[in-house]
Each structure stands twice: as C-alpha cells, then as structure tokens.
Amino acid sequence: MTTPKYNLRNPLPLSATQEAEVKQIYYKRVRGHCAPEIKAFAECAVNRTVTATWVCRTQRLAMNACMLAHAKPEEEDRAREEWFATHEERRRAEQAKLDAVEERRAQVIAMMRADDERRRREQQQEEEKVRRQQQQQQQK
After folding, report:
1. Count of C-beta atoms within a 10 Å radius of residue 80
2. Are the beta carbons of 83 and 27 closer than 8 angstroms?
3. Into which family does the record put it (predicted)?
4. Cα–chain-centroid distance for residue 115?
5. How far is Cα 63 from Cα 39, in angstroms, rounded to an integer?
6. Is the pTM of this model over 0.90?
7. Helix, strand or coil for residue 120?
8. How many other C-beta atoms lie within 10 A of the C-beta of residue 77?
9. Nearest to 46, CA basis, from 35, 34, 59
10. Count of H helices and E strands in the chain?
11. What is the pLDDT of residue 38?
C-alpha cells in the first residue's frame, strides 16, 4: 500500500481553484443533509414569485435552520478531507480524458495523412491518364 501524498489532517495550502472545489463538495454535503427541507420549500415555491417569501415561510425557515445547523467548520473540514482523499482519483480521470483526446487527435492526423496520400495518388493517376490521352492524340 502506498502512503497518501497529502496529510488529510494538516493539508497543504490549496489554490483558489482547489478551494472552490472544496467549497462545492462542502455545499453539496450540506445540501445533502437538508435535502428534505430544500425539497419541501421548492415544492411550496413552485409557481410563486414574491409571495413565496410569506406563503412558504415555515418551509423556508426550516430549510435555513437546517443549512445553518450543518454549515459548520467541521463539515468544511470533512469536505476538505474528501477532496484530498479523491484528489488522485480525479487527477487520474482527468489524465485519462486528456490521453483519450490525444489518441483521437493522433487518429485524426493519421486519417488526414491517409486522405492526403489518396488524393495525391488520384491526382497522379489523373495526370498519367491525361498524358496517355495526349500521347495517343499525337500518334494519330
């Protein structure tokens, strides 16, 4: 078993992009905890605009209370740990995607070269055909 590249308890400082990815995981986790409350508010707010604030007040307050209850630094730490734990997997997936693009690019280049070669041969055959016709006309 290999040792992890990152220490999950004392991680390295992250770039702004990486921090944004951690925040996405964090928000997703919080929304996951509060899914029933969010769903109840969304169902209440369907086809309402300004009135949703008053009509759906209890659902909104329940949703906000749930979000506040789960939006804690500990949850953000768990999201950060999840980000570090899945970092290698995401990197490998991204590299596989880039490799697939590069392989497809190589295939397209090979197809273009084959097509150019085919066109060159066709052009040579056409030129040879024209030369033979000209020679036949000169012999007549």
Report:
1. 20
2. no
3. Belongs to the CMC family.
4. 33
5. 9
6. no
7. helix
8. 15
9. 59
10. 6, 0
11. 94
Amino acid letter, residue 75: E
Distances (CA, A) of 41 to 3, 10, 60, 64: 45, 38, 6, 10
What token pair was written down for 120?
């060159």
- The answer for residues whose C-beta is within 8 angstroms of residue 75's C-beta and 6 or more apart is 26, 29, 30
Angstrom distance (rounded) from CA 124 to CA 2: 60
CA distance 32 to 38: 9
Question: What does the alpha-carbon distance between residue 75 and residue 23 come to, in Å, rounded to a whole number?
Answer: 10
Gap between the Cα atoms of 34 and 43, Å rounded: 14
Other C-beta atoms closer than 10 Å to the C-beta of 41 total: 20
List per-block mean pLDDT (blocks of 10 residues) for the chain, which spans 140 residues.
Answer: 54 82 92 94 91 92 94 89 86 93 96 95 93 85
Report, in angstroms and rounded to the nearest whole number, the Rg of the chain calculated over CA atoms.
Answer: 32
C-alpha span between 100 and 111 (Å, rounded): 16
Per the listing, tokens 């030129």 go with: 127
